[in-house]
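Check the record.
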Amino acid sequence: MVDPTWLATAPALAFGAAALLLLLADSVDPDTTNTTVLGGIAVAGSLGSLAAAVYLLYGGVGIPTGEGGTGPAVLFGGQLVVDQMALFFMTIVASVTALVTLASMDYVREHAYQAEFYSLVLLSATGMSLLAAANSLATGFVAFELVSLPSYALVAFLKKNRGSVEAGLKYFLIGAVSSSVLAYGISLVYAATGVMRFDAVATAIQSGTVQTVVDGSVQAQSSGASVQMSILGVGIVMIIGGLAFKMAAVPFHFWAPEAYEGAPAPISAFLSSASKAAGFVIAFRAFAVAFPIGALAETGGAVDWFVVFQVLAIATMFIGNFAAATQETVKRMLAYSSVGHAGYVLIGLAALTGTGDGMSLSMSAGMAHLLVYGFMNTGAFLFIALAEYWGVGRRFEDYNGLGKQAPVACAAMTVFLFSLAGLPIGGGFFSKFYLFQATLNVSAWSLAAALVINSALSLFYYSRVVKAMWIEEPTGERTIDSYPTGLYTAIVAAAVITVLLIPGFGYVSEVAFRAVELL
């Protein structure tokens, strides 16, 4: 067993230390373009964070002492809590960051400001790790900003590319609005409860001391009050809106296709995988702990947030997948596909029954899908980065015959796409089946039907890429002069892990289920 009192922050500290080391190296030699050294520092920091997260996860941090663990690490007066759920998501973030930084060594080799690029990636990853452990609305908001601010610059990193700069500006403006909505929602919850820690918010709600607006005046909630509008209810709705932006859930998704298409492909992978996971972890923790369904149902004027998530999940699945089916460029198709997958993960919140095994099954299913999605979606976007490196066009027909020239990379892409669709070629099949089982467990037939219909639809547009690579004949001359080591290694590693998650998914789901139960 390990002592979690100081070691618990190691996953986040590894990212932060690597980012500071990169800035130090850049200050010593501002003109350095030694990609091997700079990229090596970033990869080493990511792998160090991954090793620390896995070590803590298996070392018993977050498991009660009576069950052979050391209990959760509570830091800064309970503002940060490193438990099994936090470590599970830290593992996802570190894995995706390691793949992205490794692939970026080839992608940014000819670009200036490489140290700044890697530093921004690692600083954003630091925020994601802290967000996984956030146990307070205030801490979560600060961590959100640490995630978002570097992301804006990363999307606009290709300064001579109009699409990249435009995407970065749109992302920044919409992100600023969403942060304002989230901050105002947090302020309303604080006004209603007087506290910000998740467990304290839940205690205030259950004790009936929530402030509401009754006949235009603020007063304490009482069972007989006729409530016109609840401060708490409006605050919860605004928090859902702020979090839905980071999840890229409909109708807050419109920034995602623009940002993912305009950003460098490794950054698209980073944002659509790691950043999405960060948005979901704070949602899982906040709505499982701070806003108990049963107590809210007894509070007049409060919102039944699980109903809101049911609507969001169904709308996100259908709109994301139908939009992806109509795209003519591969990268934009993957961008809308990631919106659809946000709908799948939302089942983790939409299929809750309140307490017990129902909550554990649905949330753990969402967590397990996020882990599998992290590898297969990151790998798919990194393949797009490889195609851009070779000068392959963006349209589906530009990929015609690519499988004959790059069979290994195209085989990996086939694994990613079919696993994203839910075929039993990768872990995506089992993660979607786990989600389907969670919907049936609570008789959420609409969610189950939406999951099946959209998975079938996704197979259509994913197959267009596979068909182009392996069946169609090239439409023009294409010459591949080099096979970048970093990109190839990251893509193959992601494909191997995606396949290995078939026999290993049972263990992943077990860890996720235990994390939710302990939460």
Observations:
- The two ends are 20 Å apart (CA to CA).
